[in-house]
Each structure stands twice: as structure tokens, then as C-alpha cells.
Write a structure and sequence with these properties.
The chain is an alpha+beta fold and 199 residues long. The protein has helices at 21-27, 32-39, 92-107, 112-125, 171-184; strands at 52-56, 62-66, 75-79, 82-86, 140-144, 156-160, 193-197. 29% of the residues are buried.
Amino acid sequence: MPTTACRAVFAAFLLLSALPGKASATWSIIAPDSVLRVITSAAIDSASQDRQYGIATFRSGQVQFTGSALHDYRGERSAEGVLVQGNILAGPAVLDRAMEAIQRARAAGRPLEEVVMAGLRAGADAGGDSRCGAQRATAAFLAVAKTGDVPNWPYLTLRVVGIEKGDAANAVALLEDRLALWRKNGGATLHITNETVRP
């Protein structure tokens, strides 16, 4: 991978039930571990050891998978309703600090976008993407959906992309600035925000 493609991949997947009642009832009985067994099977994906998955539901639990072929540091952390995972990280502290920050923000009753941002910031502060050195990240994203959102169109999507490795800019810090601007301009009262920033 060229150095210009260096990026931190901190993913928070929130699977909210936006399906009609009948479909939702059907989907709620499918356990995440069953889905994971299918998508990591050799018949579906012969390169599953190069992948990382996190699956969470409101009714059937949650499960994570970190392929053994991913570069170190790779790993995952979980708590009730929270999945944190990553690979090519500076070390285990990235995941540990992210989980701790998420738990503190949740306990303080912060809105979901601030909870996720707290985890991203703490992970970056703990070293972030091992390929990026002091820069920590060259790309970052945050997406939050709520019940009733159109599938694949969450009410908040912020992305910071296109930062070159070695630039002074840190993508997670820029993402945090964009989230603060979003809040200042109405935040959760806005219908949909979908923004990509290229510094």
C-alpha cells in the first residue's frame, strides 16, 4: 500500500432497525454469530482472514471477528452495546483508550455522535494508525443513524479524506472540528448532514 493511502480505520457500526414491522421481526431472530459464520466461510469469502467484522443488533447480541492475516496490532474490545476494533494500530492501548472514552461518554449521557468521537479521539491520542506516526491518521469518518433514517443514508455522516502522510493535519482532529461546527449550526435538528472534507 502506498504511503499516501495510509489511513486510520476506526469503524463504529450501529445497526438500527429501520425495516418494516414484519421484516424486522424476521431479522431480529437471526443471531449475529450465525451471520458471521456465513460471511467468513470459505464458500463466501476465501480471504476472510484479511477482514475484520463487527455485528451488533438490539435484540440478538453482538459479535466481532478479526482475521489472523491482518497486520499487528490488530484486535477488538467489546462491552454491552459497544464494539471497538482495528488493525495496523500502534498497539493495544489504542483500543483500550477508545473503549474507556466511549464508556465515560456514555455514562455522562453524551449524544451518540459525541460518544463515537470521544472514542476516535482517544484512539488517535493513544497512537492511532501505526503507519502514520505522530500524524495519527490521514482519514477519518463518523456516521450515526437513528430509527427511521433511510437505509444507507444516516442523519449524520462526516468524512475527512485526502490528507497526505507527513502533512501537519490529523484527520481525527479535523473530524472533531467538523463535528463541533455541525453542532454549532444546529446539529441534531438538521434533517441530514452528509459531508466530505478534503483539506
